[in-house]
Specification:
FAD/NAD-bd_sf; 198 residues
């Protein structure tokens, strides 16, 4: 779930980030939905490696407070859900499938490993671009800001454009992500590696 609230950083402050307060954020949604805020906390690596919970590092907080240019990370939760659903949909599911069997547990661990492989590079790309966005959005008036503004007016848009959705080098990868193809490609690589002995 993504909860958006305005920040309360004073206008005169030079800070671009401040520590968030989960309880304060949750209080803004008091009475809205009893499930709205999970007690914030980090999910341990043990939970991830046992095949019980598939969360990528950096998005393991049950609740996070972040600024608008970081929301793309939360938006990736939708992609995470799609990829996870695709990975789990490939688990054995016949009337004879015993969900408590060793074979099913192995298949589930493999599905979660595929999920992690699929999400790792994409998450890295989005996080790195989020850092660029943060920098570009907070340029002080001056030559660098003027160059950014000049490039934003160019047609066609140059690669590295401040607005990620218009960047011709990034937008197709960012907005054209095919989760089914990604899972299929990773599964194919895993199958070939298994046939070749690892």
């Amino acid at each position: 779930m993504v909860l958006l609230v305005p920040d309360d950083i004073p206008e005169e402050s030079l800070a671009t980030t401040v520590e968030g307060n989960v309880q304060e954020m949750c209080s803004l949604f008091e009475g809205w939905d009893p499930r709205r805020c999970i007690n914030g906390g980090y999910v341990s690596d043990t939970a991830i490696t046992t095949g019980r919970i598939p969360l990528g590092r950096g998005r393991c907080w049950a609740t996070q407070c972040m600024r608008h240019y970081h929301i793309s990370h939360q938006g990736m939760a939708f992609e995470d859900g799609a990829v996870l659903g695709e990975c789990l949909s490939r688990l054995p599911n016949t009337p004879n499938t015993r969900k408590t069997s060793t074979e099913f547990a192995t298949a589930k661990r493999h599905a979660l490993a595929v999920f992690e492989k699929c999400r790792k590079q994409r998450t890295k790309m989005v996080v790195e671009r989020g850092n660029v966005q943060q920098y570009l959005y907070h340029l002080h008036d001056g030559p660098e800001q003027q160059e950014r503004d000049r490039q934003m007016q160019m047609v066609p848009t140059p690669e590295g454009e401040a607005l990620a959705w218009r960047d011709p080098g990034l937008a197709p990868r960012l907005l054209g992500y095919d989760h089914i193809k990604d899972v299929s490609d990773v599964c194919l690589v895993d199958d070939v590696a298994d046939r070749l002995g690892g």
